[in-house]
């Protein structure tokens, strides 16, 4: 996680960007480990038709669960809502906010335009095969039959 927590001070927004399924949500949850936080996933099909003017209603659920003094919020894949930028800019004044996104516009650098420089972005990449092996303590030089089967099983889609 490195330097991510030091940027979680408002009025900054932390933006975790990267390709789909690379761990952006998990990293954002880890950033608030041990703290109460609200989490909203805009990849949820029940929110697909929400309008920007209804985003305050979305915040009511975490406030009901954790209290109105909730300081930490994660907006996952927020770019799915047209016009989200002004809402996030307002939110950052009173909350520690993490947004995640995998949209090509966000990844292309347009985030700076959307948030007018009030953010710190982190680009997250999926593990390379070598990093995957290192994380799982597998060495290809002396791979055992058991490790080969474990490795093979990890690549099967469930």
In brief:
By secondary structure, the chain is an alpha/beta fold.
Report on this structure.
By secondary structure, the protein is of the alpha/beta class. The protein has two domains: 4-126, P-loop containing nucleotide triphosphate hydrolases (Rossmann fold, 3-Layer(aba) Sandwich), CATH 3.40.50.300; 128-158, no CATH class. The protein is built from six helices and five strands; from the N terminus they run βαβαβαβαβαα. It has helices spanning 24-31, 55-66, 84-91, 104-115, 129-135, 145-154, and strands spanning 13-18, 38-41, 72-76, 96-101, 119-124. It has a five-stranded parallel beta sheet, with helices on both faces. Helix 2 (55-66) links the parallel strand 2 and strand 3 (72-76). The longest helix is centred in the middle third of the chain and has 12 residues, at 55-66. The two termini are 28 Å apart.
Into which percentage range does the β-strand content fall?
15-25%
* Parts with pLDDT < 50 across at least 5 consecutive residues: none
Reported CATH architecture of the largest domain: 3-Layer(aba) Sandwich
Q: How many distinct domains?
A: 2
**What is the subunit arrangement here?**
single chain
Please state the structural category.
alpha/beta
- Described by the principal axes of the CA atoms, the overall outline is elongated
CATH H-level homologous superfamily name of the largest domain: P-loop containing nucleotide triphosphate hydrolases
Q: Tell me the name of the CATH class of the largest domain.
A: Alpha Beta
Give helix % range.
Answer: 25-40%
Q: What is the mean predicted local confidence, pLDDT?
A: 84
Largest beta sheet, briefly?
A: 5 strands, parallel
Rg over CA atoms, rounded to whole Å, is 18 Å
CATH topology group of the largest domain: Rossmann fold
Number of DSSP-assigned strands: 5
Strand order of the largest sheet: 2-3-4-1-5
Order of helices and strands: EHEHEHEHEHH
């Amino acid at each position: 996680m490195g330097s991510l927590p030091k940027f979680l001070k408002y009025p900054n927004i932390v933006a975790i960007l990267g390709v789909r399924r690379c761990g952006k949500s998990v990293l954002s949850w880890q950033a608030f480990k041990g703290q109460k936080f609200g989490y909203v996933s805009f990849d949820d099909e029940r929110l697909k038709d929400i309008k920007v003017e209804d985003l305050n209603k979305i915040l009511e659920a975490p406030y009901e669960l954790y209290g109105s003094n909730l300081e930490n919020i994660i907006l996952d894949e927020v770019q799915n809502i047209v016009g989200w930028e002004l809402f996030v800019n307002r939110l950052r004044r009173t909350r520690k906010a993490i947004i995640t996104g995998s949209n090509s516009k966000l990844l292309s650098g347009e985030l700076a335009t959307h948030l007018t420089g009030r953010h710190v972005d982190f680009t997250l990449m999926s593990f390379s095969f070598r990093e995957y092996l290192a994380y799982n303590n597998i060495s290809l030089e002396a791979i055992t039959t058991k490790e080969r089967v474990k490795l093979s099983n990890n690549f099967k889609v469930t």
